[in-house]
Every structure is written in structure tokens, then in C-alpha cells.
Amino acid sequence: MENATPPVRLEPWSEEDAGLLRALNAPELTAHLGGPETEEQLVRRHRRYVDLSAADPGAGRMFRIVLLPEGTPVGSIGFWAQTWDDEPVYETGWAVLPGFQGRGVATAATRAVIAEARTAAAKGAGNATEGRRYLHAFPSSDNTASNAVCRKAGFQPRGERDFEYPPGRLMRCNDWRLDLGPSVQEA
Predict the structure, then answer these.
(1) Of 179, 178, 91, which is closest to residue 139 (Cα–Cα)?
(2) What pLDDT score was predicted for residue 67?
(3) Which of 45, 66, 86, 169 places its Cα 20 to 30 Å from the Cα of 1?
(4) What is the pTM of this model?
(5) CB under 8 Å to 120, separation ≥6 — which residues?
């Protein structure tokens, strides 16, 4: 029996997504990230997500993950400009509501965000995003599900590292990297 990946659509994060962000702030979804954020932190995060989705695409984008054909918002994913080991890169992260986990939603959304980041990297020549050839993900070393998403989406493991998230808290994570250069199909 074939394991079909559910179809998803990424839609730019908007003002209307504050409720989705609150739903994604549940203890079971933030256990690997230091726990739920305060209301004040959520308001700031929501503002960053809205602003990022309105900025130059080369800076990154945040999206709500919409499950098709129902059109149900089921999570968030994005990519943003970052410096890692003194190199300009993109970073990605995602969250999927509990009732939709284990169905391939995060993997499908990650593959879609890779395409978005690849487009942004290709268009970035000559501006502040020039040189962002790689997309990194930093799931907690003990987050089995997110590490599996990285592997299924084509990221390459680069080993365990200490990563500060949230600010002031070190976590042990896996550094996964994906080359945003032309894919085999595009070459």
C-alpha cells in the first residue's frame, strides 16, 4: 500500500492567523522549544510573522499550512534569513496541530517551503540575501518527528549542536542542511 502525502497549500501569514498561532502554543507542541509563550510573546511573534510575510521575499516568509481539499488551517511553517557559522543562510521551522500530526502534513509543507526558499534564494542575487545557498533546520535532538521530517524532505544531517532557543536557553539540536541550488529536476 502506497503512503500518500496529503496535499497542502501554503498561504502567507496574515492578521487573521493570530488564533492559529495561539492554538500552536500548546504545551505538547512547544515541549521541545522551552514551553508555551506568554500572551505578550505571542503578540510579538504574530507581528513578526505578519511583517515578514509583507517584506521583500528574500528576507523570508511565514505561512499557514492549509490542508486540502478541506481548506483547513492546520499549522505554520516559514523560512527566514539567518547567519549560521558566519555564513548567510535561511532557517526553517514548522508546527502542526495535534489532530493533523502523523499524516505527512509537516513533510509536505516542508517540501513546499523548500521551493519557496529556493525561489527566494535564486532571486536574491544582488541584494541583502545574496549568498543564501542553504536552508537549515534545527530540531531538538530528541524530537523524533521533526528530525524525520528533515530526513524525508531531503535535508542532510550535519551533527548535533547547541542552539539558543528561546533566547537565553541552550538546547541540544540537530543541524540539518539542504542545498538550495538548482535541483536535479531543474538542472
Answers:
(1) 91
(2) 97
(3) 66
(4) 0.89
(5) 57, 58, 60, 61, 79, 90, 129, 132
Cα three-residue angle 15-19-20, rounded to 5 degrees: 95
pLDDT band at 1 (very low <50, low <70, confident <90, very high): very low
Contacts of 34 (CB under 8 A, 6+ apart): 165, 166, 169, 171
- Helix, strand, coil share of the chain (percent; to 5): 35, 30, 35
Instruction: Give the list of residues 6+ apart from residue 119 with CB closer than 8 angstroms, or none.
Output: 57
Note the residue count of the chain.
Answer: 187
Conformation bin of residue 98: beta by default, left when phi > 0, alpha when psi is -120 to 50 = alpha
Grid cell locating 161:
549542536
Closest CA relative to residue 135, chosen from 153, 159, 148:
153
Q: Identify any residues that bridge with 140 across adjacent strands, giving them in sequence order.
A: 173
> Residue holding cell 509563550?
37
